[in-house]
Structures are given as C-alpha cells and as structure tokens.
Amino acid sequence: MEDSIDLILQDHSSIFPTNKPHPIVSAGTGALLTGLYGVWSIFTLPGFRKIPWKLKVPYLPSCKDQTRNVMTLLEGRRGRLADLGSGDGRLVFAASSAGFQSTGFEINPILVAFARSKAFWRGVPASQVVFLKEDFWKTDLSSFNNVTAFLAPGVMELLGEKLLMELPDEARVITCRFPFPNWPQKISMGSGLNEVFAYDMRAVRSLLRSSPSTTCK
Ligand SMILES: C[S@@+](CC[C@H](N)C(=O)[O-])C[C@H]1O[C@@H](n2cnc3c(N)ncnc32)[C@H](O)[C@@H]1O
Question: Where exactly does CATH 3.40.50.150 map onto the chain?
Fold first, then answer.
C-alpha cells in the first residue's frame, strides 16, 4: 500500500512541477523590494529621528483638487503664509502664485532641497518663496496670518493648541483632509479625501470662549 502511495506521489511531482521559484528570481525580487524600501525611506524618514513618535507625519503629496480647494478658501486674502510640512512645495508654490509671501516648513532635508531646486528652476525669487528645514512644532508662527497644514489626524488636537497660543486673531488656518477635532466652527470645501477646512482664529477663539465644552484640553 505504502509503495503505491509513493508511486502516486512520484507521478504527481513529475506532472505538477513544484512552485519553488528559481533562486535568481527570489534574489532579484528581494533586491528590488529592498531598493524600493530604501528609496521610500530616503524621502519619508530623514530628519524624523528627533520628532516624538506620536507627532511623526509621513510624506504624502496633496493632489491638484486638494490644492485648488485650499486656494479657493484663501481667496481674497493676502500677506504671509506658512505651510506646515511643505513636502515638495506644491502648496507653497500655489500660494505664491496667488500673491502670498510663502514659507514652507519641512523636516525632511531631501524634500527641502527638492523644493528649493524647483524654486530655482522656476525663477521664483526668495522674497516670494522660502523653504526652511525646520521642525514647525519648535517654530513661533505668530508672524503668519495664513497657515496651511496637510498632516495626520493624530496631531490635529495638539496643532490646534499651538495655533491658538500663537496665531493673531486675523489669521486663517486651512487644514487638508483632517479637521481640528475640538474647534467649533468650520467652513469646508470639496469632499472625501480632498476636503479642506478653513478656520478664522477670531471666530474660533470667541466660539471656544462662549462654549467652553468644546475647548481644547
Ligand atoms: C502629508 S505631507 C504634506 C506635504 C505637502 N504639504 C503637500 O500638501 O503636498 C506632510 C509633510 O510634513 C512633513 N513634516 C512632518 N512633521 C514635520 C515637522 N515637525 N516639521 C516640519 N515638517 C514636518 C513631512 O516630512 C511631510 O513632508
């Protein structure tokens, strides 16, 4: 009986080849995945070591619709604009084209270098666009009357507390995709992943004063 089972198994292995990939294919796939991970981490991780784990936000570029929605909610406004976590600078360039004196704060040196080189090749003067390799959590934002941020849900509450402490009453804050959990009034534009939210600091402060139950902790 056992002999016949062995025979059957032998037969099957000759009919159905094993699924084991060729060693060169395995090695090639491994090398490719390692390379892709390396490229990804070069863009997303440098400069992050000093940031506490709960405040880490990876790089994810905003899409055209999102940028358009941000610019719509900034219509009629002027002055200085800060983009918190400026990535490759796309929001900063859009704001600069609309007449804002724009500053991008970015922790990743490769993205800062990339954005600066884009500014150079486009011939945008430093008086209009500046990219700073700076941790925005450690930066005083009180001189900005427009702030944009495309970050992550986990940091929004803390960001709200920082902006409440620092921004002037005249400031407008636009957040992409993630609203402030504890800020009362907001106007929004777009939908789904491209939704952006606008907040005027004077209105936020007065509403937080009149309904303290929604106040940030
Ligand atoms: C979701 S991306 C948004 C990029 C860009 N604003 C856009 O709309 O395409 C968030 C960016 O914030 C940067 N970032 C995260 N924490 C930061 C910090 N503390 N200071 C400066 N930049 C930071 C990341 O490196 C990343 O490039």
Answer: 64-214
Reported as type and span, the H/E element at residue 42 is helix 23-44
pLDDT grade, residue 217 (50/70/90)? very low
What CATH homologous superfamily does 64-214 map to?
Vaccinia Virus protein VP39 (3.40.50.150)
Q: Could you identify the atom of ligand 1 that is nearest to the CA of residue 152?
A: 1
- Binding pocket residue ranges, ligand 1, CB within 6 Å: 51, 57, 59-62, 83, 85-87, 90-91, 105-108, 111, 135-137, 150-151
pTM value? 0.80
Is there a contact between 96 and 71 (Cβ–Cβ < 8 Å)? no
195/65 Cα distance (integer angstroms): 9
